[in-house]
Write a structure and sequence with these properties.
Strand content: 15-25%
Number of domains: 1
Low-confidence stretches: none
CATH class: Alpha Beta
Number of helices: 8
Strand order of the largest sheet: 3-2-1-4-5-8-9-10
Helix content: 25-40%
Distance between the termini: 36 Å
Mean pLDDT: 94
Shape: globular
CATH topology: Rossmann fold
CATH architecture: 3-Layer(aba) Sandwich
C-alpha cells in the first residue's frame, strides 16, 4: 500500500519526493486538487494525486505535512478513516511572535504530539516524525554519507516499524528519541530539533543516539 502525504508545501513535497526516489509509492492530497496533481507530476514516477479522504483510505501510513491547527481539523474530519493507519505527525505548534520570529503556542508541558495523539481514536498508530529538520535541510540532506539522522517518538511498535522503513527509504537514518512523553524534544525549540538545541547542526546516527541520552527538555 502507498503512503499518503497530506499537504504539498515544502515539507510534504520534499518528503514525497524522497520516498518516491526510495521506491515507496506515495499519494499526494491537498485542499487544492490542482496543487496535489501538480506536485505529483513534479515528484514523478511513484507518485499520484487524489482527494484527502481517498488518500487516507488507500494508504497504510499517513503523513500530515500541514500546519498544526490544520492537522487538528483534518483529523476531526477523517477520524474513522484513520483507524488502523500509521499517523505520522511532523507538526510544530508555533506562531509569529512580536519580534518577527516564532514562539510556542501551547502551554508549558504540552507538546504538539500529545495534543494530536489525544485526538485519535483507539486503533490508530501514532508517531511524531519528519519534523526535526527545516524544509531546506530535509531537501538537501537525504542520502548523504554518512547518513543524516531523523528523530522519531512513539509508544507504538507498529508505528515505529513503519516510520523506520519510511525514513530509510527517504535517505535518512531513523533514531528513536523515546516515547510520546519526549515529543517536545524533537519539536521546534526542543533540544533535538534543528531550530532548537541543535542550532542548525545535522547529526549522523551515532551523534543522534548520543544526543538522546543527554538530559533533554522532556515535555515543554
Amino acid at each position: 500500500m502507498a503512503t499518503a502525504v497530506i499537504g504539498v508545501g515544502n515539507i510534504g513535497k520534499t518528503v514525497a519526493g524522497h520516498l518516491a526516489t526510495g521506491g515507496e509509492p506515495v499519494v499526494l492530497a491537498a485542499d487544492s486538487a490542482s496543487s496535489a496533481e501538480a506536485a505529483a507530476e513534479d515528484v514523478g514516477s511513484g507518485a499520484s494525486a487524489t482527494s484527502v479522504g481517498d488518500a487516507i483510505a488507500g494508504a497504510d501510513a499517513v503523513i500530515f505535512a500541514v500546519w498544526f491547527d490544520v492537522m487538528k481539523e483534518l483529523i476531526a474530519q477523517h477520524t474513522d478513516l484513520l483507524a488502523g493507519k500509521v499517523v505520522i505527525d511532523p507538526s510544530n505548534a508555533v506562531g509569529p511572535d512580536e519580534k518577527g520570529g516564532f514562539a510556542p503556542t501551547l502551554p508549558d508541558g504540552v507538546s504538539a504530539g500529545s495534543v494530536i495523539a489525544g485526538l485519535l481514536r483507539d486503533g490508530a498508530h501514532f508517531v511524531k516524525a519528519f519534523g526535526t529538520l527545516s524544509a531546506p535541510s530535509l531537501a538537501s540532506a537525504a542520502n548523504q554519507t554518512p547518513r543524516v539522522a531523523l528523530f522519531y517518538c512513539t509508544d507504538d511498535y507498529a508505528a515505529a516499524t513503519a516510520v523506520q522503513r519510511l525514513m530509510r527509504a527517504a535517505g535518512f537514518d531513523p533514531v528513536n528519541a523515546g516515547g510520546l512523553d519526549q515529543a517536545s524534544r524533537i519539536e521546534m525549540f526542543g533540544d533535538l530539533h534543528e531550530f532548537g538545541g541543535l542550532d542548525g547542526k545535522l547529526l549522523n546516527a551515532d551523534e543522534a543516539r548520543a544526543a538522546v541520552t543527554q538530559p533533554g527538555s522532556g515535555e515543554r
